[in-house]
Amino acid sequence: MKKSWAIIGIIAAVVVIGIIVGVVVYEKEKPSYPKWVGHSKSGKWTAVLSYNGEKYDDVNYSGDFIWNGSKKEKKKVYVLKTQYWVNGKMEAGDKTVAKERVSPDTGFVEYSEAPKKGEHPKAVIYWEENNKVHKEVIPLKKKK
What we know:
Layout: H1 2-29, E1 35-39, E2 45-56, E3 59-67, H2 71-74, E4 77-86, E5 89-93, E6 100-101, E7 107-112, E8 121-129, E9 132-139, E10 141-143
């Protein structure tokens, strides 16, 4: 009787150890998708370029702006246009003004490739607050 309990205990321990090893190996082998993040000089905007989990013609990074100002200020803010630049060339964005309220969908690029080593991505946002137009150029830095 004692032997059967010992065997069950050993089997349970081996199964638990096997699961733990499997999870560790899976996490190590899983591809990592870094983010590129930048903050505006005014402190009112954060730009984030991140893996979106979807795949469309081998490009699967999207970029969004996050409003860091107050909720009260947000009601007075309009986004005029957004752009995404890599090495001085506009890769995506607006050339004309389209006045819109700040929203969670305030993006600067959809379905882009991840920046390659040595490239310098920037997000640009033109916005209006209290009838004054502002332009923020936000350099993006790789985060792990």
